[in-house]
Design a protein that fits this description.
ATP-binding; 11-stranded mixed beta sheet; Glutamyl-tRNA(Gln) amidotransferase subunit A; globular; 455 residues; alpha/beta; binds glutamine
């Protein structure tokens, strides 16, 4: 049924870069057989999924939305891919994304535009717009994204779906092609909080093949989602972040957020305002740290090891082939960030830019720690506005960056957060998301409060 749905509408929406019809049908059949034999490998056995094209797969190309990887096949599965397979979850295909996960609208994909199912003239969010559009249009009931600065939560917000950025170090980055290694985290996406929790449980866990993976038990997110669905939040303390509201937030987004606060109070929660003074510097710090890591990580695309090779006709030196391949294979946003990062890490600029940004990062983590000493979770709108029109911000990177204002601090601190649908905006009838944030290894709190809010 999902493959039929993809055939019916993905020509218009452009969520998938690759559909693995035969492979997913074979996996579904294997799951059915296991269930019939009373050996279901997981609660989600047989439930298909859309996988962001940044996780390696041995049976489908992995492009990361970039021309530089066109046609490249990975010799190994990412840990997340392997866990999905082991749980009997058929992979429908690979979803469109901003090139190497850099972007907020999926318009930086080298391959195609993805449209928001709620209004096909608008962006589906980014960088994981393909996964969110697939979910919102019922092409897939589950999806996987990655969140480096908001790329799971922000697409979830603008498509009225649920997306979770788990605690850093709890979902393996092995086989997740790196954007910024200290910020990247894979995570689950669904249409309900419980679906998302079931998927979270499948993909999380310690992995010795990821040096930043943490060897600590994953909280019981499924139990928390079930407990939350009873709708009782008495005793829960929720902080509203003072710095994540005010100028620049659309009236409809503000109205939805105020309604959410009232609803959470009605469910028994206590709401207080919390000051996180360094959040105002999150955007500046993020856009130095991320490009710095990008400039280092993307050096591996040297025309020798993976994918595209331009000028390999015997008349050019290795250096020339490398330069020509990168010039042709990387898009403008990726080049912009490689240049910013290379500059920020250069000896004359390092202390003033990269070093300073790392100090700000610590101060943001301290703001969170101080806040969580008093409250269980923090909340804010997920995005300051509803989804903008395709093409509206492509020539204005700064305004594109501002769309992620509310989601970035969590990545800098390595903590956990969810976006849960928060109704439609009174301004334009488009989806609005509520962001719920929790301390490291407090992912279960997101599910409890998200499920209570959703119910
Ligand atoms: N939009 C942000 C950026 O462009 C976040 C991307 C992400 O989370 N992968 O960097």
């Amino acid at each position: 049924a999902h493959l039929d749905r993809i055939a019916e509408i993905d020509g218009e929406l452009g969520a998938f870069l690759h559909v693995g019809a035969d492979e997913s049908l074979a996996a579904a059949k294997a799951a059915d057989d296991a269930i019939a034999a009373g050996e279901a490998p997981s609660a989600l056995a047989g439930v298909p999924i859309a996988l962001k094209d940044v996780f390696t797969t041995t049976d489908a190309p992995t492009t990361c939305g970039s021309k530089i990887l066109e046609g490249w096949m990975s010799p190994y599965d990412a840990t997340v891919t392997a866990k999905l397979r082991a749980a009997g979850i058929p992979i429908l295909g690979k979803t469109n994304m901003d090139e190497f996960a850099m972007g907020s609208s999926t318009e930086n994909s080298a391959y195609q535009v993805t449209r928001n199912p709620w209004d096909v003239t608008r962006i589906p969010g980014g960088s994981g717009g393909g996964s969110a559009a697939a979910l919102a249009s019922y092409q897939a009931p589950l999806a996987i994204g990655t969140d480096t600065g908001g790329s799971i939560r922000q697409p979830a917000s603008v498509t009225a779906t649920v997306g979770v950025k788990p605690t850093y170090g709890t979902v393996s980055r092995y086989g997740l092609v790196a954007c910024a290694s200290s910020l990247d985290q894979g995570g689950p996406c669904g249409r309900t909080v419980l679906d998302t929790a079931l998927l979270h449980q499948v993909i999380a866990g310690h992995d010795p093949r990821d040096s930043t993976s943490i060897d600590q038990a994953i909280p019981d997110v499924v139990g928390a989602a079930r407990a939350g669905a009873t709708g009782d939040l008495s005793g829960v303390r929720i902080g509203v972040v003072k710095q994540l509201q005010g100028d620049g937030y659309q009236p409809g987004v503000v109205a939805s957020f105020e309604a959410a606060c009232k609803q959470l109070t009605d469910l028994g929660a206590t709401i207080v305002e919390v000051d996180c003074p360094h959040f105002s510097y999150a955007l500046g710090a993020y856009y130095l740290i991320l490009p710095s890591e990008v400039s280092s990580n993307l050096a591996r695309f040297d025309a020798m090891r993976y994918g595209l090779r331009v000028g390999d006709d015997g008349t050019h030196s290795a250096d020339e082939v490398m330069a020509m391949t990168r010039a042709a294979g990387f898009g403008p946003e990726v080049k912009r960030r490689i240049m910013i990062g290379t500059y920020a890490l250069s000896s004359g600029a390092y202390d003033a830019f990269y070093g300073q940004a790392q100090k700000v990062r610590t101060l943001i983590a301290r703001d969170f720690a101080k806040a969580y000493a008093d409250v269980d979770v923090l909340i804010s709108p997920t995005t300051p506005t509803t989804p903008f029109k395709l093409g509206e911000k492509v020539d204005d990177p700064l305004s594109m960056y501002l769309f992620d204002l509310c989601t970035l601090p969590v990545n800098l601190a390595g903590t956990a957060a969810m976006s849960v649908p928060s109704g439609l905006s009174s301004d334009d009838g488009l989806p609005v998301g509520l962001q719920i944030m929790a301390p490291a290894f407090g992912d279960d709190r997101l599910y409890r409060i998200g499920a209570a809010y959703e119910a």
